[in-house]
C-alpha cells in the first residue's frame, strides 16, 4: 500500500515538474517598471516626456569628451587658451586651441558629433511618433512638433557649423542602411534647417509663460533662422536675415537689461534680454562621473574656475580657458571689462589665492565663473553648477541685425540705433554708457567681440565672416581646413569609409 | 546529481576534500582553492577583509561576466559565496571541461564549482575550532621623505625653468610618514566554529555556528569584517523507499570598506601620493590661524581640536587620508539564507526519483553618513549633511526533478537520467537620503529624523529572470574498462526573444581504463591507467534583462522654470535576433597511479567561445547606443598536471601534492574590422592602459615601447626618421626614448601596441604534510609566472605628487641611469603621462600561503574527560612572498586586474589555534 501511494505521488510530481519545466509562459516575463518603445508614446504625457528627452540633449556637456560650447568655443577663438593642469589634461581642448594638433582622433569632434546626433535621433523619433499618435490635442501636437523641429534645426546647425559635411537624417534609419549612410551636400542640410525653423515659427508661441521657461519661443526660432542664414554668408540673403531679426528685436517681447552685469548673474534666469536659453540646475543632484549627462548641471563653470582657489566670492575650479592678453588688451577701459574678466592679480593682492595652471595669464572668465553662493549642496558639486547658458540674447540679435542691414544696404540709421542707441532707444553701446561710434561693419564686428566676449560667439563669427585665418593665425589656423573639425575617425571606421574625412585632415 | 567515483570519471574534475582544508583556516571558499587544484587562476581582489577574488576556470571564457557558477548542495548561489564557513564544507569539486559542466547547461560555460556541506555523520560529535591572530602588511613602500621630496621638486622646477621651491630642503627633515598613519601593524583576527553532528541509521544531522571578526590592515577604523554563520543539515529515511533531507544555512555579515585599488583617493593611494611636508595634524598656532585652516568652519579636527593637515602642494583627491577617513563613514550588511530540501524515492531497486527545491534569499544593504566637512577646496560639504540607506532583497529559487534508472547486466553497467529544472531570480532595491539631519556623527544618524520634503531623496528598482530546462544523461561502462557519458540539455531563458529563447547544449565523454585490460597485466610500476576525452558545448546568458527589445529609459530630464521635468527615450536600438553565447571545449586527460602511491593526472584542453554577447558598435549618427549582439570569439588552451605522493620515512609519514597549469588565452574575433575594445584607463586624462585586442590575451597591457633613455644631446639628435626629422623634438637628455613601432616617422598614438599580459601563463601550488608522533607540519605555497603588473601608483597628472625612492636613481647626467628618466616639472617628453613598458614590472611570485605546526595531545585522561581530540597549532598565512615586483602586492585581481593603483595588500598573519573534539 505504502509503495503504491509513493508511485502515484511520484507520477504526480513528475508530471507537475515536467509541466513546470516546459511551460513557455514561465519564460515570458514582462519587464516591470520599464516601458517598451513599441508601446510608449501613446498619450499626451508620454509624448511630452519624449519631447523633454530632446530638450535634455541641449544641456549635455559631456558626450564622448567635454563639449560645453561656451568655454570650448572661447578656447577655439582668440579669447582664451586651453589651460587646465597641463597639455595632457584635455587634449581635445588643447588641440582646438592649437589647430595643427587637430586630427581625426584628437579634438572635440566625437563629443560634439555624438551629442548633436543624439538630439537629432530623439527629435526624429519624436516627430514620427507624435505624428502617428491619435487623440492628441491639436494645439499640443502642433506646438510640440514645432519645438522638435526647432530643436532638430538647432542640432543640425551645430553639426553643419562644426563639421560641414554630415549625413542628413530626418527619420528612422532602415537597418540595412545603418552602416552605410553618406554625407549630404551642406546646402541640403542648410535647406532642411531653414525648412524646419520656418515650419516651427508658425506654431511656436510668441511669449513663453514663466511656468514654461526653458521652452522655445517664436522669437527663439526666428533668431536662430536668422543666424543660420547669416552663417551662410551670402550678402544677397542679408535682407532676409535683417527682416527676421527686425521682427525679433521689434517684437516687444525682449529688452536690454539696464545693468550689463545682471545678464550673466546665475540668479537672473530668463531675463528680458534672453531669447534662447538652456537651463541648468542642481535638481538632478548627480554624483556620477561616469554619466555626467545624467545630471542637469553645467560643468563649464567648474572648468574655467581658478584652480584650488581660496578666498571670497568664487569657488575653486580647474583653471581652464585662461583669458588671452589679446582680449584683455582689447577690453582695456571698456566698462564691460569688470563683468567679463577676473583679474587674478587683483584678487591675490586682496588676500585670495589660487594655483597657476597651464598657460596661466592670471585672467579668468567671469561671466560664468563658479561662485560659492551657487555651489551645489547636493550631488557632486563640480558637475552640478546651476548656471544657464544663454545661447541667443538681444544684444546679439541687435548686432546681427545691424550687420545684416549694413551688408544688405538696408536702413543704416536703424543699424546705428541698434549699435549706439539714440533718443528713446537703448542700443548696445548706450546701455553700457559708451559714446557712439561710426556705423561701420568693422565697428559692428568689434562691438560683437566686446559685448559677447567668452559667450561662445567669437569663433563662428570669425569663421563665417572669413576673418578667422588672420585673427587666429597665431593659433595655426589654416584657411580651408580649420573652419571645420575633422569627422571623428571612429565614425569613418565603423562605417567602413562610407563617411569621408573633411579636406586636409 | 550525485558525485561519481573518481575511477569512473570521464571529464576534467578536480576536488578538494574537507580533510585537505581542515588545518588551513581561510575566510573564503575561493582562497581554499587557490593553488590547490590545477586549471584555476585565482587572484585576490585585495587584502580587505571580506573581499572576493577573481576566479577563472581555465582562463577568461567571455568578455562579459566570466565568474564560475557556484552550486552549493544543488542550489546555484548568486552574489558570492563568502557566506560559507569553511568548516561546514565537506568537499569542493571543480568541473573544468564542457562535458562535466554540461549538466549545468546555460550557466556552466565559465566552469562550475560544486560545494557540498557536511552531513551524515552517524556518531555524535561536537567539535570546536578556533584561532586568534594578528595581521600586518608584509611590505611597505620606500617613499621619499620630506628632504628628498623637496630636493627632487627643486630639481624638477629648475629643469622646467622655474624657481626652486625649497631653498633649504634638509630643514624639512623626514616629514610625515603617511603609510604609518594608514597601515595597522597589529590588526586582530579571530574565528570560532562549533559543529555538532549525530544521528542514527535512519536519521542524521549536522549543525554549526561560526563567528569571524577580521580587522583590516589598512585604515582599520573603516575596514573590517564580521561574519556570523549558522547551519543545520539533516537527512532522514522514511519507510523503505524514501529519503528526505534539508540543508539550511544562514549568514549575517557586517563590514566596513575603503577603496582598495584606485587613483581617486583610496587611503593607500593618498598615502603614496601626498607630499611628506604636510603634517598629519597641524599644531603650529600661526599656521592654524591662516588659510587654508581658516577657509571653513568645517575643517576636520583630531581629538585635541587641532586640524588635520591640509596640503597646499598636492590637491584634488589626493588629500590627508586620515582626515578623509573621519568623514567617509558607512558600513554594509547582509543577511542570507541558502536552503534546500530534497525528497528521494526508490520504489524499485535502481529506479530513483529525486526532487530538490532550493532557495537563496538574500537581504543586503548599506548606510553612509556625510557630515559637514572641508578637506580641501575641491572636497567639501559645507551645506547640509546627508544620511543614506540602501536595502535590497534578492530571491532565487530552483526546482529540479530527476528520474534515473541504474542497472547492471553482467558487466554492462548503465544509468539513464532525465530531468527538468525551473529557476527564477527576482529582487528589488530601495534607498533614500535625508539631508540636514540634526546630528554630527555617523553613530547618531537615522532616517527617523524629519527633514523638509525637498531634502528627502528616494530611489529604487527591480529585476527578474527565469530559466527553464530539460536534460538527459546516459552513463555506461563495460566492466569498468570502457566508460561513456552523454548529456544533452535544452535551456530556455527569459533574456532572449521568442525566436531564440531556447538553446540546446550537447556533450559526450569517454574513458578507457587501460590498466583493466587483460593485455596490461598486473604491473608493479603502473597500478592504474586511464585515458579519457570529452567534448561539449555550454551556454551563457549573463547579460541584462530584456536586451532583445527596445526599452524606454528615464533620466533624460530637463529643467523647466526651475522644476525638473522627466524625459524618456529608448535605451538602445533593439536586437530581436539576440541568442545564446556558446562555449565548446575539447578535453583529453590521463589518470595514472605509479608505484602504488604516486598519482598523476594530466589534462589538455582547447576551449572556444563564440557568439559572445557584447554591445554592437553603431555609428554615432544613429544617435543612440547599439544593442547587445552575438559578436566576438575567444579561445583558451592549456595543459594541467596534478601530482600526489604519500610516503613514510621511519616514524615520519608525509604527503606531497602539487599542481601546475599552463594557460594561453586569445581573443580571436571582435566583429568585422573591429580590432579592439577599450579597457582600463588611468587618471583624469583617461590614459589607456589595457585593451581587448584580436590576436592577444584579453585585457592585455597597451602602450608605447621604450628603448632606454637619451644620454646625450647627440642621442636625441640621432633619434630621427628617414627624412632626418627628429622623432622626439621635445626631448632632452634624460628623457625616455620611445620606439617608432609603425615606422611612419613620427612618435604618436599609433605607435602604441600590446606590451604585456596581466594573466599568468603558469599557476602552480605545492603542499607538504608531514606527521611525526603527535606533531604535524603543513607547508603550502602557491605562485604564478609569466605575467606583468602595470605599476600606476603615482598620479603623474599632479606634478607635486610624491615618488618612491626609485626616483632617487633618476637620470641626472650621462650614464647615471638608462631606466628612470630625469625629473622635469612639465614633463615635455611625456615620460610619465604615456602608457609605456616603463611602468610594466614582472608579476611572477611565489608565496608561502600557509605554514603550520600542530601538536595533538593523546592521553587517557582526556579520553575519560570525553575529549576525543585536542590539537594546538601555530600558523602563519602569507609568511613570505618571493617576487621581483616592488609594489605592495603582486597579486591584483578585481576590476583593476593587473593594474596596481596602490593595491590594498594581503596581510601577513600569525595565529594560534585549537581543534577540540568531544564525544
Feature tags:
heterodimer, A: 505 residues, mainly alpha, Serine Threonine Protein Phosphatase 5, Tetratricopeptide repeat, 3 domains, two-stranded antiparallel ribbon, 20 helices, 5% strand, B: mainly beta, 22-stranded antiparallel beta barrel, five-stranded mixed β-sheet, 7% helix, 48% strand
CATH topology of the largest domain in chain A: Serine Threonine Protein Phosphatase 5, Tetratricopeptide repeat
Helix content of chain A: 40-55%
Strand content of chain A: under 5%
Q: Stretches of chain B where pLDDT falls below 50 for ≥5 residues?
A: none
User: How many β strands of chain A by DSSP?
Assistant: 7
Number of strands of chain B: 46
Plain-language structure description:
The complex is a heterodimer of chains A (505) and B (919). Chain A folds into three domains: 39-66 and 108-204 and 478-505, Serine Threonine Protein Phosphatase 5, Tetratricopeptide repeat (Alpha Horseshoe), CATH 1.25.40.890; 236-279 and 392-465, Serine Threonine Protein Phosphatase 5, Tetratricopeptide repeat (Alpha Horseshoe), CATH 1.25.40.390; 290-390, no CATH class. Chain A has a two-stranded antiparallel ribbon with strand order 2-7. In chain A, strands 3-5 form a two-stranded antiparallel ribbon. A two-stranded antiparallel ribbon of chain A has the order 4-6. The radius of gyration of chain A is 26 Å and the shape is globular. With 505 residues, chain A is mainly alpha-helical. Chain A has 20 helices and seven strands. Residues 1-5 of chain A have low confidence and may be disordered. Chain A starts with a helix and ends in an 11-residue tail after the last helix. Chain B is mainly β and 919 residues long. Chain B is 7% helix and 48% strand. In chain B, a hairpin with a 5-residue loop joins strand 15 and strand 16 (380-381). The longest helix of chain B has 14 residues, at 146-159. Chain B is globular and about 95 Å long. The interface between A and B is large, with 101 and 87 residues. Strand 1 (35-36) of chain A pairs antiparallel with strand 23 of chain B, so a sheet runs across the interface.
